[in-house]
Amino acid sequence: MDTALLTFRGGAGAPLVLVHGLMGRGTTWGRVLPWVTSMGAVYTYDAPWHRGRDVVDDHPISTERFVADLEEAVAALGRPVTLVGHSMGGLHSWCLAASRPDLVDALVVEDMAPDFRGRTTGPWEPWLQALPVEFGAAQQVFDAFGPIAGQYFLEAFDRTATGWRLHGHPRHWIDIAAEWGRRDYWAQWRAVGVPTLLLEAGDSVAPAGQMRQMAVGAAHVTHVEVRGAGHLIHDDRPQAYRDAVQRFLTPLTDRA
Question: How far apart are CA 107 and CA 83, in angstroms?
Fold first, then answer.
């Protein structure tokens, strides 16, 4: 069954919710679904400001807004879930696990760290603001983003009769990332007590050493570095991602 904020993608048993990263969307998890649906009832989620260019959210942009929205989505399922989050989605997943441990049984966090303070969006903004609202051909998307991210964004963007349209506004995406440069999320991370897999890309966007530090002294946390992988580990090194996630989740799902 779909809820107002989640889309059911298949499988049966304990629920798993796939939570995308910045500029992503639930539709980008397609290559993961054939195997992850064997591990439970799988849902995808579209975060605020990622639901279509014409979808308005009047709330101020903040991590708290994202977490409250994810909380509403997860609570509608009526039982605790496993959250599988990429980047921004990983951050919001662990923040939810910290504030509502009754809603979350386990976490997978892909290439995200708690502290980006001092990093600004300045070098990134001109490129993002220069993106066309609509791409007329798939090759234009690949030219702009490369082969791995290009496929990802083709799946995220709104499909129109004439091409692929941005599913949100660059000014919102910039504001989302800018918040991470002003605050840290160590307190939320340290409040997480559920089994957690941290997957770090060899070519990570996370500040050096932080994801490994997240696992220090935490028996419930497993850290895995996927060497040679870029930020989209699940698309760049899909077999390594699958092996790590299945190795982590199988004992938990067998126990459930």
Answer: 5
Residue corresponding to tokens 């998890």: 29
**d(Cα 209, Cα 216) in Å, to the nearest integer?**
11
In-domain check, residue 147 = no
Spatial distance between the Cα atoms of 247 and 241, rounded to a whole number of angstroms: 10
Domain that residue 33 falls in: 6-117+186-255
pLDDT tens, position by position, 238-247: 999 999 999 9
- Determine the Cα–Cα distance for residues 62 and 65; give it in Å rounded to an integer: 5
Does a structural domain hold residue 21? yes
Q: Above 70 in pLDDT, residue 196?
A: yes
Contact indicator for 91, 63 with CB cutoff of 8 Å: yes
Q: What is the pLDDT of residue 124?
A: 86
Q: Quick check: 182 and 115 in contact, CB under 8 A?
A: no
Q: What is the pLDDT of residue 172?
A: 96
Distance CA 153, CA 28 (A): 8
Task: Report the C-alpha dihedral over residues 17, 22, 28, 29, rounded to 10 degrees.
Answer: -30
Start-to-end CA span in the chain (Å): 21
Instruction: Compute the distance between CA of residue 161 and CA of residue 182 in angstroms, rounded to an integer.
Output: 40
Sheet with 134-135, side-by-side order of all strands: 134-135, 164-165, 158-159
Would you say residue 170 lies in a domain? no
List, for residues 80-134, the tens digit of each pLDDT value. Answer: 999 999 999 999 999 999 999 999 999 999 999 999 999 878 788 998 999 999 9
Work out how many domains the chain is built from and give that number: 1
pLDDT at position 235 over 70 = yes
